[in-house]
Amino acid sequence: MSVIKTCQLSTVMIVTVFAVFLFACTREVPLKVIEEVEVVRTVEVPVEVVKEVEVVRTVEVPVEVIKEVVKTVEVPKEVIKEVEVVRTVEVPVEVIKEVVKTVEVPVEVVKEVVKLVSQPNSELISPAAFTSISSGGGHTCALRADGAVRCWGGDNEYGEASPPSAMDRVISVSSGGSHACALRTNGTVGCWGYSGDGRTTPRSLGPFTEVSSGRRHTCALRTDGIAECWGNNEYGQASPPSEAFVAISSGGDHTCALRTDGTVGCWGRSNYGQTAPTSPGPFTEVSSGGRHTCALRTDGIAECWGYNEDGRASPPAETFTDISSGGGHTCALRTDGAAQCWGWNEYGQASPPAGTFVDISSSGSAHTCALRADGSSQCWGHR
Question: Is the dihedral of CA 258, 260, 261, 262 positive or negative?
């Protein structure tokens, strides 16, 4: 492969503007964020930042390209060179790839496809530091350490994987069937995605302490522990009882919540007994799935009830620290940090990778996501 010759700035400008125009409407491919640039001469983007580029070591991207902010690729801080004041640089990956063809590149053939971009649900998403993660119907959302929300996956038909730009200062996020909701630091809830049945329209400003998105409805806990729900209410899943709870979980067409005494109360559809706990507990956590529910007892033993096809409601006799019920499967974290799943596994959603995790979410219909100790996320199951 021969070295690409240097082009005049005017040529670069034409190509980059064309690239921005051509690719602005394509799927967003976020990497890692850095914030605010005041003085930038050039940005050297190493191979790790470019997806599926065979010939590149570094690419000098003119400042004019940086200014074409399309909010798709977030370039890691360590790759920024010759910058006096740098906090954020967002460069479309397609623009970078186009610039590779036109600007001077110290060439060395590199056969490497990095897993740093927002791939479908079964890939390593990014080394960004996430603090929590939530898998939905076909999409996934995660909360970054800086309080920003990032989503990926699914077809994004209703914008469920595109959180509003103003969705910052967030302390938790929850993905539903075709929507997602986030809890802000001021206690208000903001939602996005499909809203035809009101699932993205909170009944009040709260303030709330927790939010949980179900398949077609959403529930949240106010500061006094009272639950408020909105969205589809065909089976009463959005009609909570007037009592105080400490945790809440919205499922397929039902909702369950944890009381202060450790018992679980559920409401909504119960055609398979998904709203009927098998014991009084006490429990420390509850998670509502598609047609089943699981909870952790104070001794870490899991109990599940409801629909049990494929064994989704038949947990192993292990001790767990976290549990999450999905559409047809359940996953939990053992005390050693390893993930263990059971139930429907057609797409590998119940076959976790090796290693240890600190947070897990199998609330997706056919995929599971988890966080490792370094804040990186990994997902498996339906792509």
Answer: positive
